[in-house]
Write a structure and sequence with these properties.
By secondary structure, the chain is α/β, with parallel strands linked by helices. Helices cover 34% and strands 16% of the residues. The strands form three sheets. A six-stranded mixed beta sheet has the order 7-8-9-10-11-12. A three-stranded mixed beta sheet has the order 1-3-2, covered by helices on one side. A three-stranded antiparallel beta sheet has the order 4-5-6, with no helix packed on it.
Length: 398
C-alpha cells in the first residue's frame, strides 16, 4: 500500500556533517575557589582559623527520567562519526518517533544533566592535596631563614669590626692627637695674643719693711700685657731697686693677676757707723739703722775690711751657723783674715773658731763645751777652742 508523501513517520536520515562545523558548546558551571585544607590534630600544630576547610556541599541527585537513560554531555554533544546518521529531534534511537510529552521530558532531563555533568567535566583534575600543616611549616621555615640571615649579618659585621679594630684605633688615636694639637694651638694663641689674658692686677706678698705701693708702682708698666708675654727681665730690674728684697718669686694667676712673693733681707750683724749702728745682712746690705745695738745681734769688728768683702762674709757665715741658744750669748765677732774668726761671749769668754769650714760640727761642739763649763764653774771666763771639731779644748784665759 502506498503512502502519501509527507506522511512518512520513519526516522529521518541525518545530514552529513559539514566541514569545519563546530560542536555544540558545553555549558559549564562556575568554578569554585579552592579552599585551604584544614590541618589535622595529628601534626601537633594548632589549626588556624583561616585554614579551616568548609564541609563540601552534597551533590544533588539527578532527576529521575522515565524510560530514558541520561547520557553524558560529551556523548550528547560529540560530533557523529563519518557515515553515521544524526538522529533527528524528537526521534528515538531506534528510529521511532517520540510523542510531545516524552520529547519535552527528555529535553528537561538533558538540560539538568548537562548542567550537573558539565560542572564535573569542566572542573580540571585537582592537583595533589596540600599536606597537613605545610603552610605552617613553610611560615616557620621562612621565619628561620630570616633569623639565619640576621645572624649571618651580625656575624659578618662582628668579623668586619674585628679585622678593622686596629685601623679604627689608629684613626681614633690620630683624631685625638689632632684634637689635642688644635686645642693647644688655640689656647696658646689666646694666651699670647688675646686681651682677655692681659695683666690687670699686681699682688705683693711677704713684705714688712718694703713699701708695697712703691713696689706695685714700679711694676705697673707691665699692666695691659698678656701674662704669657710679660717681660721678666724688666720685672727683675724694677725689683732690684729695692735693696731690702733678698729674693722674690712671681706667679701668674689667669686670667689677669700677677702675684709677687718677696723675701726681705734679714740683718745678721750690727756694724758701728759713727753714732749709730747699721744692721747688715750676710751680703753686706744695710737693712736698717738703729741708734743702739740690738741685744740679739753681735757687733762685727771689720777693721779695715769693707761690707760685702770675703772677711765680712766669713764672719756672717759663722754667726749664721751658731745655734740660737749660743748666738744669743755672743756679743761680738772679729776676724783679721778669712781663716781667723774669733767670737766674744757676753760673760767675757772667747771662742777660737778658725776657718768657716765644718761650721756645723764646730757649732755643735761649742754648744757642748758651754754647757759643760756652765755646770762646773759658770762664773769663770774661759777660752773655747773649736778650731778642730774633733777635739774641743777649754782653757783658762791668761
Amino acid at each position: 500500500m502506498k503512502r502519501p508523501e509527507g506522511f512518512d513517520e520513519g526516522p529521518a536520515q541525518p545530514e552529513a556533517p559539514v566541514e569545519h562545523d563546530r560542536a555544540p558548546r558545553e555549558r559549564r558551571a562556575p568554578r569554585l575557589p579552592r579552599l585551604p585544607v584544614r590541618r589535622g590534630a595529628g601534626d601537633g600544630q594548632e589549626a588556624r582559623p583561616d585554614l579551616v576547610t568548609p564541609a563540601p556541599e552534597p551533590k544533588r541527585p539527578a532527576p529521575a527520567t522515565t524510560g530514558l537513560r541520561a547520557s553524558h554531555p560529551a556523548a550528547d554533544v560529540a560530533p557523529p562519526r563519518d557515515g553515521a546518521r544524526r538522529p533527528q529531534e524528537g526521534a528515538t534511537p531506534d528510529g521511532g518517533a517520540l510523542d510531545a510529552s516524552e520529547h519535552g521530558e527528555r529535553e528537561h532531563v538533558a538540560t539538568v544533566t548537562d548542567v550537573v555533568d558539565a560542572t564535573t567535566a569542566s572542573r580540571p583534575e585537582r592537583a595533589e592535596e596540600t599536606p597537613i600543616g605545610a603552610r605552617v611549616r613553610a611560615a616557620e621555615t621562612a621565619r628561620e631563614a630570616r633569623v639565619a640571615r640576621k645572624r649571618r649579618k651580625l656575624l659578618e659585621r662582628a668579623e668586619v669590626r674585628r679585622f678593622t679594630r686596629r685601623s679604627r684605633h689608629r684613626r681614633v688615636a690620630w683624631a685625638t692627637a689632632g684634637g689635642v694639637v688644635v686645642v693647644l694651638g688655640v689656647s696658646i694663641l689666646v694666651a699670647v695674643y688675646s686681651p682677655l689674658m692681659a695683666l690687670r692686677t699686681i699682688e705683693i706678698k711677704g713684705t714688712s719693711r718694703v713699701d708695697d705701693a712703691a713696689l706695685r708702682q714700679a711694676l705697673s708698666e707691665q699692666i695691659g700685657t698678656p701674662l704669657a708675654r710679660l717681660d721678666f727681665g724688666a720685672i727683675k730690674k724694677d725689683i732690684a731697686g729695692f735693696p731690702l728684697i733678698e729674693s722674690y718669686v712671681t706667679e701668674e694667676e689667669p686670667p689677669n693677676t700677677l702675684v709677687v712673693t718677696v723675701t726681705e733681707r734679714s740683718p745678721v750683724v750690727a756694724v758701728k757707723t759713727g753714732d749709730s749702728f747699721s744692721l747688715v745682712d750676710p751680703a753686706g746690705i744695710v737693712v736698717q739703722s738703729s741708734p743702739t745695738q740690738p741685744d740679739t745681734m753681735p757687733l762685727a769688728d771689720i777693721g779695715s775690711a769693707k761690707l760685702g768683702s770675703s772677711v765680712f762674709r766669713t764672719m756672717t757665715e759663722v754667726v749664721l751657723a751658731l745655734p740660737s741658744t749660743v748666738r744669743a750669748q755672743v756679743s761680738g765677732v772679729s776676724a783679721t783674715t778669712a781663716d781667723d774668726v774669733t767670737l766674744t761671749m757676753k760673760d767675757g769668754s772667747r771662742v777660737v773658731w778658725g776657718s768657716p769650714d765644718e761650721s756645723d760640727a764646730k757649732a755643735a761642739l761649742l754648744d757642748a763645751l758651754v754647757k759643760d763649763h756652765a755646770s762646773r764653774d759658770p762664773n769663770t771666763a774661759v777660752e773655747y777652742d773649736v778650731s778642730a771639731p774633733d777635739n774641743g779644748i777649754i782653757r783658762s784665759q791668761s
